[in-house]
Amino acid sequence: GGIHVFAPATVANVVCGFDVLGFAVNEPGDEVIMRMANKPGITISKITGDDGRLPLNPAKNTVSVSVEHYLRSIDRLDVGVDIELHKKMPIGSGLGSSSASTVAGLFAIKTLLGDESDPSALLPFAMKGEEMACGHGHADNVAPALLGGFVLIRSYEPLDVVRLPHPAGLWCAIVFPDVDVPTREARQIIRKNIQMKDAVTQWGNIAGLVSGLFMQDIDLIGRSMKDVLVEPVRSMLIPDFYMMRQMAMDLGAVSFGISGSGPSVFAFTRDEETAKRITQKLQQHLTNIKIGSNGYVS
Ligand code: HSE
């Protein structure tokens, strides 16, 4: 038998919560089709939507490597599976593309084997995949991809993941400026030391954002989504970042920022129409300055 699993794109950091906050969108997302095989071991028979950029070699693909970690942990390396991977969003876009695939793969194998443990038990394996993809095993993409909605990584050691509520009627516009920003490099350029004054600003904003999510207070969410630590550095890698922010805010966005490590940017809005208009205008702007773009409204 086989199984078909979808896992969504995710926006990590949510502007102020570097490595500790993330949320899932309803689309786009990646798909994994997994089938049991007679021979032990993992094979990848097909990858679509990656422009030939991802390795079919199971030792080099984050999906198969994470699945193997999982099989080893439950002492089931005797199992044979074949994986088909269908990428439905650009790689290296800051939308948690590798996370979505990895989470879909792990959920597929867990389900095929009838493992009824809590899905969050898969997180450490998914984090291994992130470590392989960019050198650091952060959880702010994989946790929301696996659990849905908004998620807080309260602690990494020990891992403590908290699902957060969010207001109904919160829309997200996402635009992907087609420039290359590898997460590994986007992590290397951020400052290692921060000022106490900036730390105070940052944790005030994180607390404000989380409060806004609980209180369903979209204004509070919007004014809390400011980042004085990471965005000032990473925004340099994104064409016309501050101009795009101004455009989004003028069009009625509640907030605007970098999705994960970029180059995708996102805006929260109170309705679908505003989100669509922002996506359109920003895409148009990027095309005018001769940068390809993809837009999503979720
Ligand atoms: N929190 C991570 C970072 C997310 O900003 O580097 C990467 O997608």
Automatic annotation (TrEMBL):
UniProt keyword Metal-binding, yes or no: no
Gene3D superfamilies reported in the protein's UniProt record: 3.30.230.10, GHMP kinase, C-terminal domain (3.30.70.890)
InterPro entries linked: GHMP_kinase_C_dom, GHMP_kinase_C_sf, GHMP_kinase_N_dom, GHMP_knse_ATP-bd_CS, Homoserine_kinase, Ribosomal_Su5_D2-typ_SF, Ribsml_uS5_D2-typ_fold_subgr
GO biological process: threonine biosynthetic process
MF terms in GO: ATP binding; homoserine kinase activity
Keywords, in A-Z order: Amino-acid biosynthesis, ATP-binding, Cytoplasm, Kinase, Nucleotide-binding, Threonine biosynthesis, Transferase
Occurrences of domain GHMP kinase C-terminal (ranges): 216-286
Domain GHMP kinase N-terminal: 66-149
Broad enzyme group: transferase
EC number: 2.7.1.39
Pathway(s) served: Amino-acid biosynthesis; L-threonine biosynthesis; L-threonine from L-aspartate: step 4/5
Binding locations of ATP: P90, I91, G92, S93, G94, L95, G96, S97, S98, S99, A100
Entry keyword annotation includes ATP-binding: yes
Top-level taxon: Bacteria
Family note: Belongs to the GHMP kinase family. Homoserine kinase subfamily.
Protein name (Swiss-Prot/TrEMBL): Homoserine kinase
Native source species: Mucilaginibacter phyllosphaerae
